Amino acid sequence: MAKYSVHQKPVDTLLAEVKSGQVAIPELQRPFVWTSTKVRDLMDSLYKGYPVGYLITWQSLGAALKGGSAAAHQHILIDGQQRITALRAAVAGLPVVDNRYRKQRITIAFNPVSESFETVTPVIRSSSEWLPDIAEIFNTPATFSLLSGYFERNPEADRGAVEAAFTRLLGIKNAQIGIISLAEDLDVETVAEIFIRINSKGVPLSSADFAMSKIATYGERGRNIRKLIDYFCHLSVAPHVYDDIIENDAEFAATEHMRKIAWLRDDSDDIYDPQYGDMIRVASLLGFNRGKASSLVSELSGRDPETRKVDESRIPIAYDRLEGALHQAVSKFAFENFLMIVKSAGFIDPSMIGSMNALNFAYALYLRLRQDSSIAEGERTRIVRRWFVMSLLTGRHSGSFESTWEQDIRRITAQGAAEYLRQIEESELESGFWRTTLAANLETTSTRSPYFQTFIAAQVARGARGFLSKSITVKAMQEHHGDIHHVVPKDYLAKNGFPDRSDYNQVANFAITETPINIRISNRAPADYLDEVHRQIETGALSLGEITSPLELEANLAENALPSDLRDVTAESYQAFLKGRRSLIAAYIQAYYDGL
Q1: Are residues 247 and 127 in the same domain?
Q2: Do residues 232 and 367 both lie within one domain?
Q3: Which residues span the domain enclosing 61?
Q4: Which pTM was predicted?
Q5: How is 226-247 classified by DSSP, letter by letter?
Q6: Of 196, 334, 357, 408, which is the most buried if we count CB atoms within 10 A?
């Protein structure tokens, strides 16, 4: 059986169907991402008869139309929204929402002599050769008067050529747009798969885009839920847009949703700035125990996961659960407390966290555990903190993470989070992991490696001081972007048999250091600069840092996971030093993890 049909409709008919609600565009109160140049190019392509790509629609049972009526025969536009919005802006003259959530016109001008389109400018608007707004032409019945006015302003123009250009311009309303209509009986998973395989201008669409489109079709409620997600994500990154939202979306500003996220106007923390796909995943895990966005779409479509049949009575219940999960996720108390847990593990800067999926799952886990009153606050914090670090060290949320998420949620539900975490630790964080696997994973030049960043987090959490620092901590330097220093300087190594970056830039050769100490060490071998530290200890005259006792030096080397015989490391023993330090770092991380 065919999964789709392909047909064409003229622009005019398509826009009429959008206006009447036969084709549903999720009414997003989010910025129009196309530039005016792209709108111009779209009009130029239609004028010249070039293809502009296919729109994709799907008849989704149970969706709700604007105004609350049923949507049994409504086709949801799941790909092509930007093109339709561009047509509505240029042809129908309707405003779009800019990046400050203000409604603005995109005005496209046309020159019938050169047959070219441009975004209108003051110069173009004052020029007699240009028609400053093509929407006026499309929406004025008396186009003859517009044409007469043009010839009055441009008496020298070639009347035949200009009239032909006018006719061709008006013909855009009859230009054919290709539409791929997905079969109404396709299951949601298939529709989602089709959706995420589509490319628009080379940018792959995500299953989160699909879910957001589905959410917004459920009448006013659906549109507001989508806005809740979208505005929360925007405000978490740019709190200053709060005033723009209040000013330009009064309808949403008056809702309970806006009150729940208003606290973000004063938010300055950037440890966890989720995008809408992240919020959808968190809400799906929390509300439905599902890891895939397509599974959320299935729930919102009323599809019973057991029978795989649509039951429309399930739809409002699903939206209740989604809304409830989102309200928990956007809670100021919950969000800020979760961030404190992450920071308490030593991850105090967003650059230290390379896995958004690890944050997403940990947040969903935290929210789930908050629902269980039998779990003490301290125990909840301990579980979430250890789970987060465990997932970074094991790469648990990489690859086919959605399936892993659903398996983890099922087992957490069945066994309890503490017991299931203990089983994972026993199977994946056994002694061989710390002694062998983690040390091997540290054989890398990437300072973005989750293993090296976890080492830095461990130093932050344990209050370690920077290399050869007496009082300045790794935490303080991480907050103010201290130097990453080569323990065995790269210039020294390059001159002594290790010219490759892959040799001297091993993370096992790095330590967080104060800039003045880094500069003072320069390109000297460990024996050279540590001799200076020893002289400083003997004389008390500070020249390299502030360490003035052997015990201070011994402690400093230990908290930087450096060997006590660092002074003896030379180019000849450099490889042995790297191997030994990897083991020291792994042991340091293990001690940190055990204390979480």
Answers
A1: no
A2: yes
A3: 4-182
A4: 0.82
A5: HHHHHHHHHHHH-GGGHHHHHH
A6: 408
